[in-house]
Each structure stands twice: as structure tokens, then as C-alpha cells.
Specification:
By secondary structure, the protein is an alpha/beta fold. 44% of the residues lie in helices and 12% in strands.
Length: 588
């Protein structure tokens, strides 16, 4: 395999930066010791001569380090392509370590003076990334995509209940009598917050209390539905269960994007039935395939529903994986976006990423495509007033410091590590959220994934146990992730036989590394489950099969890309042709 681009080598541990980074780590720890000592009172007696506790601590740390070095998943290995885990830049790890020593909790500025200020800067960074107005938008870090998605739907659900609470409030009944029943069920989120802001504070508080109690007495159908692609992340099923919402899956097409024609049918049916529509979720980088939904089409559907029926809904983008790819479209100057599609991105993908500026909320995970250490997710809100729908203020924390909105009262999670904020802030400052910075790193992955897709489909057939087989990459990657399979070249095989064989060979490929029989540089892959029809390219039954999933999050020189992917394919063919072990696939 080839090493990452030399231009990026000082981002990660390397023999050329070892001395400098070890010195930086030493300085960080020395600074912490000096700070800690400055706050300690003088000991009243002599120090104990018993150092057994210290020796035990050192031994435990030594044992832990040895275990981590021996058995950790090898993210830095160029052959590791299994999951959305990049090798964390060493400066980000040291920033996390530095802040971790001081243990800030970003629930309130009172416990995180420095990292709360850094999070305000990150809020502006993330709003700017998606072209949200920083004076009206708002963002914060969270533990990951689960928390970000849950919080967005919590906002959407509570906003959906506010019109009903307004209709029940005596002071609002006259005004609400003029609102049609259909609009009451599906009022535009922006109109909801406008109505709230027009109320006296006491009335507003009463309405908000009523809105929060309504979901506990209503059925899931009355609370409303969330529409999301059928290949959704499992977090969405958990979210619907937790919030008592109805989850409506929307079929995906052969590109693994949401079928917006089917979505339109489902939305119009719901409006015709008078059913509340809480939200439509636009997946921007699906966790299994990296596919990006047609966000422009979803926005157009909302506009159609508003214009024709007076019915609207919340639009959330689950861009946990794909959000940072918007850096490919941003100029280094911080001015208007690049006119190009970012070269590597397909035009429809670039168009969808640009359309993110018009959705209501976006989940994006710095610990995925932002190269940050865990835990580091984020929620970005186009109108910060939406967060008022979930605000719960503490009796013992100050809410704000200065003119900026605080975080703790408006977030799903209370305690949040300031160390994660420090790491993400460092990465944003080090790389920059534009095409020449983080975008350049991500662009290399997109380019490599697309080269691998083409090389797989162009590769010659090869024998496995005397039968010719071929590689099939399911779709041109939208981002830096793809799915592929190994198929027997047998036109007479039944769909059931093919499904079983595809699963068996996929599991065999996934099991190739690590292992004593693996050739050097054998890649690590993960798995995905997809309909057989998306592998065979023809209509079949609803059977699913296991395919091979790979993610490209390491930068490679463009002139090395073809050699890299051809070597991957050569290793796979050699391993599949020589190994005889049979892997039992999971049941469909």
C-alpha cells in the first residue's frame, strides 16, 4: 500500500514530527501541574514516604498502554477501509488531552470558561459551513449523530404541538379560530415561532407548558410521522420509540437515495387524511452506502404542500457523515461558494449539499468526516428560536455569559465534555472548512472511491473453486464510501442461489483481514445488507444479501490512486482464489 500524501504527514504521528509533538505533550502536562500547584494550599506535614499508590498507578497506566498498542483497531493502517474512522490528527488528540486535564463541562460557562467560548466559535463555524446566518442560527456539540438527530426531532415534535396548545389557550383562541384545521396540524415551523414571539412572556410560558404535555396524552399517530429513507440508520427507530413518533420509511432507488416520487405520494396521502407530518429527514451520506438524498426535491415538495394545501413540515438533514463534504464547495477566502462542483462530486451531489442551507436543522459529526476524536457530534439550527421549544432552565446554573446564548438549557444532553470542543476547535483552525483545507482531504477520499468503483467493474473475471466470478460495485459513490459484491458468472443461477452465494463471498472477503493467512496489505472491510435487486440490476423479490462496505478517509496522491486500487483488487483476487474456508452467511 502507499503512504498518505506527504503534504499531510505532519497532521498524524510521523517520525519527522515525533520529537516536536512529544515536547508539546510534555509542555501541556507541565503547564497543568503548575496550574494545579498554584491552587493547592501548603501541606501541613511532611510528604509520605510510601509511594506504593504511585507505583500502582504507573503500573496500571503501563499495562493499559501495552494493551491498547497490541490490540487496538488499526485506524492508521492505509489498508483499513472498514468503517467511518479516520486516523485522528495528533494536534487534535493533544488538544483533547490538554482540555481533559482541566475537565471542563460545557453544560454552563461556570464550569467551562474557556471551552464555552470555543464552542461559541464552533457555533459560528458550523453555521457558516452551511450558510446559516450566524446572527440567527446556532450550533452546539453533542456526543454524536444519535443525540443530534434525537434533539432535532424533539424540536420538531414540540413545534408541531404548539399550534394545538395555542388553540387551547384562552388568550389565543380568537386569533387561532382563523387558522384552518389542516394548517393547525401542519403549520410551518417559522410561523410557529413567529406566533410564539408575538405573545406576552407569561402566556408564552403557559403555551409552552401545554405543548410539552400534549405528546404524553396523544397516540403516536396524533403526535405525527417522521419520513425517512428505508435504509435509515437504526438511530431513527430508537428516536421514534423514544419520542413516541410514527416512523414512515420511504423506499430508496438503485442509487440508494430516497425515492422522492414515493415520498410525494406518502405526504399527499397524509395531508388528505389530516395526519400531522412532523418532519422529513434528508439523509446526507447514508451510514451504509454514503448516498445523498435529493434535498432540492424535498424542499420543493414542502413548497408544493404549503402552496397547494397550506400544510408544511420540518426538514432535518441527517448529515452526520456527509455534512463536512460541503467544504469541497467553499472558498478559502470565506466569501461566496466555489462555482465548481468540487471536481470530485457529481453535479447532483454538489447540488444537494448546496441545498442544505435551506433545511431547518442539520446533524453533522466531527468525529466522522471531521477527523476529530470521540465523542464529537453536532447539531446546527437555522433559526435558534426553534431550540426554545425544548428549553429547560436550571435552578442553579447561569444561563448565559455575555451576549451569547448558553448551551445547557437548550441541549438534549446536560454534561458535555469541553475536551471534545477543544479538539474540534483545533481542527477547524488547523485545516479550515474550505476546499483548500479539510475539503482537500475529503476530496482525495471521494476521488479514490470513484476510482475503486470503476476499477472493480472493469476488473477481469477470476476463478474461485473452479467457477468464474467477477466484482460488481453497486453504484458510483456519492461521497467516499461504496458497496461491492463478488458474483458468480452463471446466467442460469436462481436469485436465491445468487443471494446466498453473494452473502457467503462477502463474508469471506470481510474475514480475510486480519489473520495469519492474509497476504501483506490485505484490506479491512465491513458489511452492509441491501436488496438483491440492487446487486443484480434487475427486479427480483424482496430478498436481501450481504455486500462489502468500504470507506476512504485517508488522503492519497492522485498519481497513486490507480496503483492503489489495482493492488487492492489483486490482493482480493489472490485471497479468494486460494482460500477454501466456507463462511456461513447470516440469514436474510
Amino acid at each position: 500500500m502507499h503512504e498518505p500524501l506527504s503534504r499531510w504527514r505532519h497532521l498524524w504521528p510521523h517520525r519527522d514530527n515525533a520529537t516536536a509533538m512529544e515536547s508539546a505533550a510534555h509542555d501541556i502536562l507541565s503547564d497543568y501541574y503548575r496550574w494545579h500547584a498554584s491552587l493547592q494550599t501548603t501541606s501541613p506535614g511532611p510528604a509520605s514516604t510510601d509511594s506504593s499508590l504511585l507505583q500502582r498507578a504507573i503500573a496500571l497506566l503501563s499495562d493499559l498502554s501495552a494493551r491498547l498498542q497490541r490490540d487496538s483497531t488499526p485506524w492508521p493502517d492505509p489498508a483499513y477501509l472498514a468503517h467511518m474512522n479516520g486516523d485522528v490528527p495528533i494536534a487534535a488528540s493533544l488538544a483533547f488531552f490538554a482540555a481533559l486535564l482541566y475537565n471542563p463541562n460545557n453544560v454552563t460557562a461556570e464550569t467551562s470558561l474557556v471551552t464555552t467560548e470555543l464552542e461559541h466559535e464552533l457555533s459560528d463555524d458550523l453555521c457558516s459551513l452551511f450558510d446559516f446566518d450566524t446572527r440567527q442560527g446556532w450550533a452546539h456539540l453533542c456526543s454524536g449523530g444519535h443525540a443530534g438527530n434525537y434533539e432535532a426531532m424533539w424540536m420538531a415534535r414540540n413545534l408541531k404541538q404548539i399550534p394545538f396548545a395555542l388553540a387551547e389557550a384562552p388568550a389565543c383562541q380568537t386569533a387561532m379560530q382563523q387558522v384552518a384545521t389542516l394548517e393547525l396540524h401542519n403549520m410551518a415551523p417559522a410561523k410557529v415561532v413567529q406566533l410564539l414571539c408575538s405573545l406576552e412572556p407569561a402566556i408564552r410560558d403557559s403555551v409552552m407548558h401545554e405543548a410539552r404535555t400534549l405528546p404524553t396524552t396523544a397516540s403516536s399517530r396524533e403526535r405525527g410521522a417522521v419520513y425517512v429513507a428505508a435504509h435509515r440508520h437504526p438511530a431513527w427507530d430508537k428516536c421514534a420509540d423514544l419520542l413516541g413518533l410514527q416512523l414512515v420509511p420511504v423506499v430508496v432507488d438503485s442509487t440508494r437515495r430516497m425515492d422522492t416520487a414515493r415520498l410525494r405520494e406518502q405526504l399527499l396521502r397524509a395531508i388528505g387524511d389530516g395526519s400531522p407530518i412532523v418532519a422529513v429527514v434528508a439523509t446526507t451520506g447514508s451510514s451504509g452506502e454514503g448516498s445523498v438524498d435529493d434535498i432540492d426535491a424535498i424542499l420543493a415538495l414542502r413548497q408544493e404542500c404549503q402552496t397547494r394545501f397550506g400544510a408544511s413540515f420540518f426538514i432535518h438533514a441527517d448529515a452526520a457523515y456527509g455534512g463536512y463534504y460541503r467544504c469541497l464547495l467553499r472558498s478559502q477566502s470565506g466569501g461566496p461558494e466555489c462555482d465548481s462542483n468540487g471536481n470530485e462530486l457529481a453535479p447532483e451531489v454538489a447540488k444537494a449539499l448546496r441545498a442544505l442551507t435551506h433545511v431547518d436543522t442539520i446533524t453533522v459529526d466531527p468525529h466522522k468526516s471531521g477527523y476529530a476524536p470521540y465523542p464529537a457530534g453536532a447539531l446546527v439550527v437555522r433559526d435558534r428560536r426553534y431550540a426554545d421549544a425544548i428549553a429547560w432552565r436550571s435552578r442553579y446554573f447561569s444561563e448565559t455569559r455575555g451576549e451569547r446564548r448558553g448551551f445547557g438549557a437548550y441541549t438534549l444532553e446536560g454534561a458535555r465534555p469541553g475536551a471534545a470542543v477543544a479538539a474540534v476547535w483545533t481542527l477547524h483552525r488547523l485545516l479550515g472548512l474550505h476546499r483548500q483545507g479539510l475539503g482537500a482531504l475529503l476530496a482525495d477520499g471521494v476521488y479514490l472511491a470513484r476510482r475503486f468503483h470503476l476499477a472493480l467493474n472493469e476488473a477481469a473475471t477470476f476463478p474461485i473453486e473452479g467457477v468464474l466470478h467477477r466484482f460488481v460495485s453497486l453504484a458510483m459513490p456519492d461521497l467516499a464510501m461504496l458497496n461491492f459484491a463478488v458474483l458468480p458468472v452463471d446466467e442460469n443461477a436462481t436469485d436465491a442461489t445468487n443471494a446466498a452465494r453473494i452473502s457467503e463471498l462477502s463474508e469471506r472477503v470481510i474475514a480475510l483481514a486480519p489473520g495469519p493467512e492474509a497476504l501483506p496489505d490485505t484490506p479491512w472491510f465491513s458489511r452492509n445488507r441491501v436488496p438483491v435487486m440492487h446487486v443484480l440490476g434487475q427486479p427480483v423479490d424482496s430478498r436481501t444479501t450481504t455486500v462489502i462496505r468500504c470507506c476512504f478517509l485517508k488522503p492519497y496522491a492522485r498519481d497513486q490512486a490507480d496503483a492503489f486500487v489495482l493492488r487492492l483488487i489483486d490482493r482480493l483476487q489472490q485471497q479468494l482464489a486460494t482460500r477454501r474456508d466456507k463462511i456461513t452467511p447470516p440469514s436474510s
